[in-house]
TrEMBL record:
InterPro entries: P-loop_NTPase. NCBIfam families: PRK09270.1-2. One of its GO terms (molecular function) is kinase activity. Pfam families: MeaB (PF03308). This is Pantothenate kinase. The keyword Cell membrane does not apply. Gene3D superfamilies: P-loop containing nucleotide triphosphate hydrolases. It comes from Streptomyces caelestis. Keywords: Kinase, Transferase. PANTHER family: URIDINE KINASE (PTHR10285).
Length: 219
């Protein structure tokens, strides 16, 4: 039987057990709706009460443009080797640890208008019993990325029909300043090879989330 967004909310709510913090990973190819799903889960789970769910995107671990230039990787921004994968895994490990009552863990964010990571932008309070993290490479099994999956309680894979995913992706690049032709070229040259790599990890997910269960707001 097809499942709905409400089913996903119920499944996420059940992840923390015995007072232990849980971490839910959401992955999928670029433009598949990962951020939208994560944001809506956080909103619905927290409701109007005291926040107990935090959202920590993988995008905060993008290497800065200056470092990408130094490494000769600027034109491959978004590929697996343009992230601090070891740093991301270390943060997830820290989030798994039980913290003191007044400890806040600060995670980096990503400023899309600047296309740059932003240190210490996301506070995760000790009251957060569920952390939702999302990004392309949560199920990669190479290099430092292989440390990520064992730190996650579940990983869900977002899946959209290819034409819709590409349409959303081009629109997002346009929204953040690229001309249409430039956006289409970037999707073909950079995003699509990354998408093909991410697609090979689908079989490692605990759940595949079809487009019919995704909130229809933005990619």
């Amino acid at each position: 039987m097809p499942f709905t967004f409400d089913d996903l909310v119920h499944r996420a709510r059940a992840l923390p057990r015995g007072g232990r913090r849980a971490i839910l990973g959401i992955t999928g190819s670029p433009g598949a709706g990962k951020s939208t799903l994560a944001e809506h889960l956080v909103r619905d789970l927290n409701g109007s009460g005291a926040p107990w769910v935090a959202h920590v995107p993988m995008d905060g671990f993008h290497l800065a443009d200056a470092e990408l230039e130094r490494l000769g990787l600027r034109d491959r921004k978004g590929a697996p080797d343009t992230f601090d994968a070891a740093g991301y895994a270390a943060l997830l490990a820290r989030l798994r640890e039980e913290t003191h009552a007044d400890d806040i863990v600060y995670a980096p964010g990503f400023e899309r208008t600047l296309e740059q990571p932003l240190a210490g932008a996301i506070p995760v309070p000790p009251t957060a019993r569920l952390v939702i993290t999302e990004g392309n490479y949560l199920l990669l099994d190479t290099g430092a990325w292989s440390r990520v999956r064992p730190l996650l309680d579940e990983v869900w894979f977002c899946e959209l029909p290819e034409p819709e995913r590409i349409r959303r992706l081009v629109a997002r690049h346009e929204q953040f300043g690229k001309a249409r032709e430039e956006a289409q070229a970037w999707v073909s040259r950079s995003d699509q090879p990354n998408a093909e790599l991410v697609a090979t990890t689908r079989g490692r997910a605990d759940l595949v989330v079809p487009g019919s269960a995704l909130p229809r707001v933005r990619a």
